[in-house]
Structure to design on (123 residues):
């Protein structure tokens, strides 16, 4: 399974809601990437975030251990800078090993929570 996935992934519908309705940390509005590394070596992952009105930010660096998955909330990234809430963005993920990536958003601004998830585009 070493070659399961791709080394470049893109998701373009990024948006971290600015506030939440419900107890944290479970119900804090957020976006997350879920990365599967089915291979036998650590995957070195980098994220670059793009905006409509400012320069890109990144890379954010993450390690995904061999034969493991990583669920990373994007609103918890801080280095090189936090991703601003209430602002649309897109993200390019690159990895030195093939991985599979899924993108998820939890929007708890209303009492009736909404969640969506999608497989990112691999290019």
């Amino acid at each position: 399974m070493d070659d399961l996935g791709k080394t470049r992934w893109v998701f373009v519908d990024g948006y971290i809601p600015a506030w939440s309705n419900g107890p944290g940390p479970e119900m804090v509005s957020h976006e997350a990437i879920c990365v599967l590394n089915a291979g036998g070596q650590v995957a070195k992952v980098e994220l670059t975030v793009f905006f409509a009105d400012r320069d890109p930010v990144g890379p954010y660096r993450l390690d995904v251990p061999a034969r493991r998955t990583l669920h990373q909330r994007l609103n918890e990234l801080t280095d090189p800078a936090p991703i601003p809430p209430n602002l649309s963005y897109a993200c390019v993920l690159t990895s030195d090993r093939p991985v599979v990536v899924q993108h998820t958003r939890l929007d708890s601004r209303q009492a009736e929570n909404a969640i969506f998830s999608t497989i990112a585009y691999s290019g």
